Amino acid sequence: MSILFIAFKVLQPVLLASLAWAATRVADLINHNVKSEKLKRILLRLDDAIALAVKEMNQTIVDALRDMSPDGKLTAEQRANLKAQAVKLAKSHLGPRGVEEVCEILGIAHHEVDTHIGARVEAAVHDLKVGAATRVGVRLPAPTLAPAGELAGAQ
């Protein structure tokens, strides 16, 4: 027998074990990337559903309640009811399968999903208020139009 054949026979288990280890690592990497993509996808869907619910309620209900209030502010009870309605609306935008995916991906129980969505609703309301506050009273300079000759020269 040749030396190469003997070396191959001796190293064959090591090579097979190395190949199996590498295949396992590649499979783990693929699984991790798939889970990561699924997590990103469900979080984007969740954030979109919450943003839609908050904006929809702000447009249809909150403004009317503020107009009816003597000081233009909502009571604590009104805010709590609006939050509960926003959570319900966000869950309806997600649908039963979306809510199930949120629970599965985030590792939360069904009875905890309302609390989680409620916290995200509060954050979306805050972002909406902060966004409106930063736009009000801030004047951006008007865009200036360049003479036609300058635009032609820029090409």
Taking the sheet with the most strands, its summary is: none
Whole-number average pLDDT? 80
Helicity, as a percent range: over 70%
Which strand-content bin applies to the residues? under 5%
Task: Pick out the low-confidence regions.
Answer: 134-148, 150-155
Q: What is the number of helical segments per DSSP (H or I, 4+ residues)?
A: 4
Radius of gyration computed on alpha carbons: 28 Å
First CA to last CA: what distance?
Answer: 75 Å
Secondary structure tally: strands: 0
Can you give a write-up of this model?
84% of the residues lie in helices and 0% in strands. The termini are far apart. The chain has helices spanning 3-68, 76-106, 110-135, 148-154. α1 runs antiparallel to α2 (76-106) and α2 (76-106) packs across α3 (110-135). The chain is mainly alpha-helical. The chain has a domain at 37-132.
Describe this structure in a few short sentences.
This protein has 155 residues and is mostly helical. It contains 4 helices and no strands. The C terminus is likely disordered.
